[in-house]
């Protein structure tokens, strides 16, 4: 698909055996000021799963699904995969592309929102990898944040309806929808850019986008419910030093309050993520579930998009959008990014 000669899946990376865990955590947190106790604690989450993070296999599954979708729709791009924090490392992938004679690449990150951690850091990863490879490195165009693309929204709406059906019928109508995303420092949130990509503009794009996705998904879920569901935004996986403010409320704290208000059932929708990786499998399926059990709240968790057909078709649509540089951006909200190239200040500073 002109002008591209390859597609790149850009992801976070995760360990796949016990011995990988500590080196992986060192890669993630180098220079980030994460307390040692927090690292030890997160290490235990991985050890509980024998050192295997689900994220790499989820990337392989997504690549297989995108390959089939590209083939069925006449998109003849080869597919590459590179990670920020673990093998296959992005720099090795860029070197491989250079060796294969690839000149111009369209890349999708497994992260749908604006902010330093979810978007700009991937741009920096790309720059660093290209620099390391040198003159033969291909040009790499990263697809813009895609949080309100209909394919992303529809996959969550579908998965949320399925989760509601897993609740006992008498709890369904009153179930609270809790939309959960990775917390970030409030300073990172304030610097997470402007929906219209105006450098230096107000910021706060990350929580604004999360709130908008929660609204859009709920609207679709409610369209086939007997009545509307109350919904709200919560955060998970807080890290960093104790005194540093991060986005709140934490899902566990909020569950306590909801129990006190008499809420009996919740559906947790991990709308801040694109697959059911470790932050979902541990922080929600183990920790938040335990909190809910203790409080007598029935909790079910909706699946993240993973290889949902709407999400896979979205990938192809975003590749087409990026290829036709003047094409209108597919987005369901007023927050759809208007730029492709994220000028400094657009998608977040550290
Ligand atoms: C916004 C956001 C996303 C969502 C967007 C996206 O998906 O990219 C995300 C995803 C993920 N985060 C992940 C894992 C970790 N994140 C950490 C630390 C941090 N995350 C942050 C933010 C985010 N993280 C931040 C601000 C930190 C503090 C350090 C720093 O400023 O950079 C740490 C260190 C230990 C800890 O402090 O918890 C780990 C191990 C995994 C892999 C899971 C697996 O293995 O399956 C995934 C997909
Ligand atoms: Fe993280």
TrEMBL record:
Task: Kindly give the Gene3D superfamilies that the UniProt entry links to this protein.
Answer: 3.40.50.1400
User: Which residues does the record give as Fe-coproporphyrin III binding sites?
Assistant: 53, 122
Q: What is its EC number?
A: 4.99.1.9
Q: Which EC class does it fall in?
A: lyase
Task: Give me any GO biological process, just one.
Answer: heme biosynthetic process
Keyword Iron annotated: yes
Keyword check for Metal-binding? yes
Superkingdom, natural source: Bacteria
Q: Its family?
A: Belongs to the ferrochelatase family.
- The identity of this protein, by name, is Coproporphyrin III ferrochelatase
Gene this protein is translated from: cpfC
């Amino acid at each position: 698909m002109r002008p591209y000669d390859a597609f790149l899946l850009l992801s976070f990376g995760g360990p796949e055996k016990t011995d990988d865990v500590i080196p992986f955590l060192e890669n993630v947190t180098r220079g980030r000021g994460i307390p040692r106790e927090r690292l030890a604690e997160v290490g235990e989450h991985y050890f509980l799963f024998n050192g295997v993070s689900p994220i790499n296999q989820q990337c392989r599954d997504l690549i297989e699904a995108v390959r089939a979708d590209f083939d069925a729709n006449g998109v003849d791009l080869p597919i590459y995969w590179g990670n920020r924090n673990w093998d296959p490392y992005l720099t090795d992938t860029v070197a491989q592309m250079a060796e294969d004679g690839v000149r111009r690449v369209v890349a999708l990150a497994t992260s749908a929102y604006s902010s330093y951690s979810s978007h700009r850091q991937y741009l920096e990863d790309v720059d660093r990898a290209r620099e390391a490879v040198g003159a033969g490195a291909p040009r790499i165009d990263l697809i813009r944040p895609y949080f309100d693309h209909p394919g992303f929204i529809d996959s969550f709406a579908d998965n949320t309806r399925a989760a509601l059906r897993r609740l006992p019928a008498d709890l369904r109508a009153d179930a609270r929808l809790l939309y959960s995303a990775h917390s970030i420092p409030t300073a990172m949130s304030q610097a997470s850019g402007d929906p219209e990509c105006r450098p230096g503009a107000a910021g706060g794009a990350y929580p604004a986008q999360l709130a908008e996705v929660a609204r859009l998904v709920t609207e679709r879920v409610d369209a086939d419910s007997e009545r509307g569901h109350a919904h709200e935004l919560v955060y998970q996986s807080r890290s960093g030093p104790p005194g540093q403010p991060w986005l709140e409320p934490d899902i566990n704290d909020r569950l306590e309050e909801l129990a006190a208000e008499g809420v009996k059932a919740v559906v947790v929708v991990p709308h801040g993520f694109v697959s059911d990786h470790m932050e979902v499998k541990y922080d929600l399926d183990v920790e938040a579930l335990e909190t809910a059990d203790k409080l007598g709240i029935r909790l079910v968790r909706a699946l993240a998009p993973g290889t949902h057909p709407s999400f896979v078709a979205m990938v192809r649509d975003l590749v087409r959008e990026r290829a036709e540089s003047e094409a209108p951006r597919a987005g369901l909200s007023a927050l759809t990014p208007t730029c492709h190239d994220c000028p400094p200040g657009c998608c977040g500073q550290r």
